[in-house]
Specification:
The complex is a heterodimer. Helices cover 70% and strands 0% of the residues of chain A. By secondary structure, chain A is mainly alpha-helical. By secondary structure, chain B is mostly helical. Chain B has one domain. The chains are: A mainly alpha, B mainly alpha. Chain B: Keywords: Membrane, Transmembrane, Transmembrane helix.
Chain lengths: 131, 181
């Protein structure tokens, strides 16, 4: 298993988490851990699908775009929530959720540029790293 | 009779079991969801300041009304409450970030420490307020300690994926991330 493929898998996983999180639209009360409603459902599904595509096609730049999208959505959410507008239909929990997905996807998207792995070491480095 | 020397076998690391790894993930993500859900009621821009007070402002003012630690009550009364917009935004930012980073398992040990700090601040605000259950806050502290001790982001978290690269890198951010993960 190469470290690069684990990055792709991470991007796809974050995309699946984002899309699955859209199901919070059906929950109310104690177990509505994240408020995903209205336009927030579309944001989660579209950017989540983009992240899954990034992982499946091994295109980190798509993960980066999806991550920036989630961060922009989080900033809009908190700004409009404070204004009383709230077009995205969320609250602070939505901000935290999208912040996590955004930071995660951006990290995945820029890792190869920041910390490239020499191809000859790809197979070893994954095993060594967590010691 | 021949004395036999029994060499004790080294215990298997606790995270070698798939069940244990799964439980570590559940604890980390559960803790993330705790912070995420509780970011929902830190509502800007007034954060509950008003007549009557509510939300974050009301709970913060409990530190003065039902003091737990004298110096903390003084600090809340003379520094925090008069500048509540700043502290409200700071609280929202810190708690949303706690949820975000614990959710994805990035710099997890650092954020576990931040979580311990934030839990202590909450504890010193509301521990003596009516209808509080002190074990809630002790459990929060212990959960964060468990996440720190097990380096929980290395299991199904971004720390686990990227730590090998950070360890090989000579850059300062990478070395900091190795320590934070």
């Amino acid at each position: 298993m190469s470290a690069y493929s684990s990055l792709d898998r991470t991007a796809a996983t974050l995309g699946v988490v984002a899309m699955t999180g859209a199901a919070f639209v059906f929950l109310r009360g104690t177990f509505e851990f994240v408020q995903i409603r209205g336009a927030g459902v579309a944001v989660s599904l579209l950017l989540g699908a983009l992240a899954v595509t990034a992982g499946r096609l091994a295109r980190p730049v798509l993960a980066l775009i999806a991550g920036v999208g989630f961060l922009v959505a989080a900033v809009i959410q908190v700004a409009r929530w404070a204004d009383g507008g709230n077009e995205l239909g969320g609250d602070g929990s939505t901000v935290a959720w999208w912040l996590g997905l955004g930071v995660g996807l951006i990290t995945v998207g820029i890792t190869d540029r920041l910390w490239p792995v020499p191809s000859a070491r790809l197979d070893n480095v994954h095993e060594e790293g967590n010691r | 009779m021949v004395a036999q020397t029994v060499t004790p076998q080294p215990a298997a690391p606790p995270l070698d079991s798939r069940l244990n790894r799964g439980l570590i993930v559940v604890i980390r993500v559960g803790l993330a969801l705790l912070w995420i859900q509780n970011a929902s009621w830190k509502t800007p821009p007034d954060f509950g300041r008003g007549d009557p007070p509510g939300g974050l402002f009301k709970f913060t003012s409990y530190a003065v009304e039902f003091p737990v630690l004298g110096p903390y009550a003084w600090l809340t009364e003379h520094v925090v409450l008069p500048n509540f917009s700043f502290f409200g935004w700071t609280t929202l930012l810190v708690e949303a970030s706690l949820g975000a980073f614990l959710l994805i398992g990035l710099a997890t040990r650092l954020w576990a420490l931040v979580g311990i700090g934030q839990t202590l601040a909450i504890t010193l605000s509301v521990l003596n307020a009516p209808h509080e259950w002190p074990w809630s806050y002790l459990l929060m502290l212990l959960m964060h300690a468990a996440v720190f001790a097990t380096a929980a982001g290395r299991v199904a978290g971004i720390d686990g994926v990227l730590r090998p690269r950070w360890r090989r890198s000579r850059t300062k951010p990478a070395r900091l991330l190795v320590r934070a993960s």
